[in-house]
Automatic annotation (TrEMBL):
It holds the Pfam family DUF481. Keywords: Signal. This is DUF481 domain-containing protein. It comes from the Bacteria. InterPro entries: DUF481. Residues 1-18 form the signal peptide.
């Protein structure tokens, strides 16, 4: 019996000893020990044994960091690597060992824009959010529902996102209003902040008599700014537009160019702002130009809840005869995120 107890004790000791911990030293010299979940957009998230919830703090408040685990690390100059992070005596600096080349570099913490452990499970790499808005009035029996779902997955050299937005409005003495947006995108990351974007988006709205518009895009882009305060990316390429309008039997198909920009500002307290704009000059339809624009402003609340203000606008200078050239939606929603 004593041998069995001793064996269990040794197994427990070796298992405990084998566990590696990440260390964060803050600028006030407080020390957090646990497992880094992610550092992105200027915020680092760490799980500890002595806290029910993960700690989230601004990256600029971290003075030293150390971890023996392998992480995906992205730098402000566009360098992307798999490496281990070692704590050194110099404040606001660390040593990164590239596990692929075994080279070591001293890096300023301010130059690190992204950290993600490569050994995390599927659920640890998944981000999700859901927000909803409801409006009901006695006047004209107005009933309005807006719902938005966003999913994101980050891997070693790529990330993918899925989005679904639904607006439905019904009231007396008026035709029902409906708008549905969805997007499935894949971005492959390249050295020096270049990337390859692939996506499929759909749109259905009653304002422009669009039963269904499906847009397939492939292009090439670059992050012009990529830091712990903001990022700004631009991309261009080809787009195939397949659209079916209300009361038409045959779908319309066209080949387009696209030029897009994506700007995200997140080092402004609990606020974050993201805006996207894409222009589609047609190749196969003479002088046709379409434009898609979106603006999302989000305010984070405790317990991962948030309030979001959104504006979506799309324009087509050659719509279906009799339909509107543009359509827009402004909405306020309340939601929750999982990350």
């Amino acid at each position: 019996m004593k041998k069995i107890i001793l064996l269990f004790f040794l197994l427990f000791f070796f298992k405990t000893s084998a566990q590696t911990s990440d260390t964060l030293v803050l600028k006030n010299n407080d020390i957090l020990v646990g497992e880094i979940k992610i550092m992105n957009k200027g915020v680092v998230q760490i799980e500890t044994d002595y806290s029910k919830d993960d700690f989230k703090l601004q990256w600029k408040h971290v003075k030293n960091i150390g971890s023996e685990r392998i992480h995906i690390i992205s730098l402000i100059n566009g360098v992307l690597m798999n490496g281990k992070i070692s704590k050194i005596n110099a404040p606001y600096k660390c040593e990164i060992t590239n596990v692929e080349t075994q080279t070591k570099s001293i890096i300023d913490l301010a130059d690190i824009v992204y950290i993600k452990p490569v050994d995390e499970s599927f659920w640890d790499r998944l981000d999700a959010s859901f927000d909803v808005g409801i409006k009901v009035t006695k006047a004209q029996n107005l009933q309005q529902l807006t719902a938005n779902v966003n999913l994101g997955y980050t891997s070693k050299r790529w990330y993918g996102t899925a989005m679904y937005k639904h607006l439905q409005s019904i009231q007396d003495d008026s035709e029902p209003i409906r708008r549905i947006d969805s997007e499935l995108s894949y971005v492959h990351l390249l050295p020096k902040d270049y990337f390859i974007p692939l996506s499929i988006t759909t749109l259905s709205n009653t304002e422009q008599d669009i039963d269904l518009r499906v847009i397939s895009k492939a292009g090439y882009g670059k992050f012009l700014i990529h830091s712990n305060k903001k990022y700004w990316g631009v991309a261009s390429g080809l787009s195939f537009n397949h659209e079916k309008f209300k009361d038409t039997s045959e779908p319309n198909k066209s080949l387009e160019l696209f030029i897009g920009t994506d700007f995200n500002l997140y080092d402004i307290g609990d606020f974050s702002i993201q805006t996207k704009a894409t222009v589609f000059p047609s190749i196969t339809e003479s002088k046709r130009v379409r434009t898609d624009f979106s603006l999302d402003t989000k305010y984070d609340l405790p317990l991962d809840f948030f309030i979001k203000l959104s504006f979506v606008y799309n324009y087509d200078n050659k719509p279906k005869p009799g339909a509107s050239k543009d359509d827009y939606v402004f909405q306020t929603t309340f939601g929750w995120k999982l990350n």
